[in-house]
Amino acid sequence: MPGRVIALLAGAYLLGSIPTAYLAGRWMRGVDVRQYGTHNVGGSNVWHTVGHWAVVPVGLFDIGKAAVPAWIALGPMHMGYAVAVAAGLCAALGHAWSVYLGFTGGRALSCILGTLLIVFPVGLLLESSLMILGLALHAEAFAAWLGLLSLPVASLALGEPAPVTLGCMGMALMTAVKRIEANRLPLPQGRERWQVVWRRLWLDRDIPSHEEWVTYAPDHARPGGGESETR
Fold this sequence. Notes:
Elements: H1 2-17, H2 20-29, H3 43-49, H4 55-74, H5 80-96, H6 109-119, H7 121-136, H8 140-157, H9 162-181, H10 192-203, H11 210-214
Helix pairs in contact: 1-4, 1-5, 2-3, 3-4, 4-5, 4-6, 5-6, 5-9, 6-7, 7-8, 8-9, 9-10
């Protein structure tokens, strides 16, 4: 059993590491999404830098990267909730710190949704509802973070198994670390440093303007080679 668990978790990490958004950018537009928009290797950056339609296959594949190993653990292999949650989180870790991209990646929200689909469907409904509300209010990142923070509370209130509650806490912690780390994007010096940390955590961006953040492009990709903000 320990060998099977290790094999499943390692496989989940490698599956999660498949950089779907990066591949979509390369194949569909010939760009590295890490140099455009939010620099995030995920569906939201694909939406802004590759095309709105492309977010559908990218998002579905990324959800599946976590849902499949979690389902295998909970269903066919009968390993229980602890291993299922761990498998989903390993896939999310692979997405966030992909071995194929020098341990850079996306925020792994799609993988988190895939894990919730298998181990905590009510949590998936809660997180998805808040994300839709955030989209309507143009506050997607804030709403997604608020949803993640509410998941452990909801899990406890509904009497979910302890591994599910702990897994929800792990999802929030991983997201906080990834947002602040931001693929090793340097932080400014002085007082602005903490302002940027705060914005990264709550708004998932470095600057006040959401529009400027998501539409960023390097100088060589701008019409006329105009100046752009250094990141």
